[in-house]
Design goal:
Blueprint: H1 2-7, H2 9-30, H3 35-52, H4 54-80, H5 85-99, H6 108-129, H7 138-146, E1 148-149, E2 152-153, H8 162-167, H9 172-200, H10 209-229, H11 234-257, H12 264-280, H13 286-298, H14 304-315, E3 318-320, E4 326-328, E5 335-336, E6 342-343, H15 357-362, H16 369-381, H17 384-392, H18 413-421
Antiparallel strand pairs: 1-2, 3-4, 5-6
Helix pairs in contact: 2-3, 2-6, 3-11, 4-5, 6-11, 9-10, 9-11, 12-14, 16-18
Length: 436
């Protein structure tokens, strides 16, 4: 073990130095030999490491989103070359290269955190075996061996025997209970983190094998933590439990404020954003403008949640702009249609309602009240004697004078006869002579 630790001293030495620096601070508050001083030193080490890994975490989120976007294309490739694994792999690599996506990017935080976990394990194991490692000298070693967390020594394991536990100044029952509780909490936090990712932040419109893999990992990872956790010292369990809690909180923040498009988390986020924007009449934060800008840029490719968001703004008299801002809707402003398409310019002129043939002949349409008035005026100007003359001469040849049309049902007196005997809007058109 000393040989392995010496080979990896380039990482164990910095880790031990960071722990000692935090211990010197907390030791002045809680006492140098207390479990609080050493336990909080480990927790602070986790927080420092995770803060440094935030850029990698952001890159992991982008890689995961990109992989989710490529799932339909990946499924097509798998179905097309299901009998040719080599060609399938080549097409997959080509797809990754064209999209600029790296599948290993989603594993970067875990890979980057592994050396620190390995170094901390050897530091705590050196404390358990009574050997100095890194910058931890004899005095710090004795102080760490006296430290207990809820009655369990910092270097004790679940699998340790009673003699070894008694040598560390504790009872086997206390060690088993504390380590068992920490293992359960560690596995539960890992399960909840993975379940939160699968149930809230996954695009439900796409069903791919990637989702099945994630569901399987949701159950595999907690079991792995439980199996390997019984061989971890209490200090390592503190480290791993803290990093799981940090991951869970970090993921909750990302899901709430930057959800995956098409997921349940996006539906909840857009519902909150709709209430906020309609109340204030604008987008106030930069993150809100980024989300609105992305939704407007999609156009017809918006999902149902994004279309509902745009329609809700339209009903409230607001319009989402291409730069992510929201303004009050005007006649000349950008308008959002129901299907999510952005149109510019003035409002379209509404076409008149199409009239039936009977309505055009009678001139009594509902939409054209002026035609009724015009017909009424025309009927009043026609002399009743002329109308009678035209009816009496109906037996004459049709080439002499056009025959009068039969009055429509429901007509009244002279008005109906005038309308039927006179063509609307101009002179009568003579009919062709009858063949006798």
């Amino acid at each position: 073990m000393d040989t392995i630790a010496s080979l990896f001293s380039f990482i164990t030495t910095p880790v031990s130095w960071v722990i000692v620096q935090f211990h010197s601070v907390y030791g002045k508050i809680f006492g140098p030999d207390t479990g609080w001083a050493w336990g909080l030193s480990i927790v602070s080490l986790v927080i420092l490491i995770r803060i440094c890994l935030i850029p990698l975490f952001v890159k992991q989120i982008k890689a995961t989103r990109a992989m989710q976007t490529l799932q339909p294309e990946m499924k097509k490739i798998q179905e097309r070359y299901k009998n040719d694994k080599q060609r399938q792999s080549e097409e997959m690599m080509k797809l990754y290269k064209e999209s600029g996506t790296n599948p290993l990017s989603s594993c970067l935080p875990i890979l980057a955190q592994s050396p620190f976990f390995f170094a901390l394990y050897h530091v705590l194991n050196g404390i358990a075996t009574g050997s100095t490692i890194g910058v931890i000298n004899e005095s710090l070693l004795n102080s760490a061996r006296k430290a207990h967390i809820f009655g369990a020594p910092l270097a004790a394991k679940f699998t340790d025997g009673s003699s070894k536990v008694e040598a560390l100044g504790a009872s086997l029952t206390d060690v088993r209970v504390v380590t068992a509780v920490m293992i359960v909490l560690m596995s539960a936090s890992q399960f909840y983190t993975q379940r939160q990712l699968m149930t809230k932040n996954v695009d439900t419109t796409v069903k791919t094998p990637f989702m099945q893999q994630q569901k399987m990992l949701m159950y595999v990872f907690p079991v792995m933590f439980a199996v390997f956790g019984i061989n971890f010292p209490v200090g390592v369990l503190v480290y791993w439990l803290t990093t799981n809690v940090w991951t869970m909180g970090q993921q909750m923040y990302v899901i709430r404020n930057n959800p995956t498009p098409g997921s349940k988390a996006q539906a909840a986020y857009l519902e909150r954003l709709t209430k906020h924007v309609t109340h204030h009449g604008k987008t106030r934060r930069r993150s809100e403008k980024t989300i609105v800008k992305a939704i407007v840029a999609k156009g017809r490719d918006r999902n149902e949640f994004e279309r509902s968001f745009i329609n809700a703004l339209t009903k409230s008299g607001l319009v989402a702009q291409a730069d992510g801002t929201v303004v009050k809707g005007e006649a000349q402003a950008v308008a959002q249609t129901e299907d999510g398409v952005t149109t510019t310019g003035a409002a379209r002129r509404q076409q008149p309602k199409r009239q039936t043939k009977a309505q055009r002949q009678s001139g009594t349409t509902k939409a054209g009240g002026d035609s009724v008035s015009a017909s009424s005026d025309a009927s009043d100007s026609v002399d009743e004697a002329d109308t009678t003359t035209s009816l009496e001469k109906s037996d004459e040849p049709q080439d002499a004078k056009p025959a009068a049309k039969q009055a429509p049902k429901g007509g009244s007196n002279g008005r109906s006869r005038a309308q039927s005997g006179q063509r609307k809007g101009g002179p009568q058109r003579p009919k062709s002579p009858s063949k006798k």
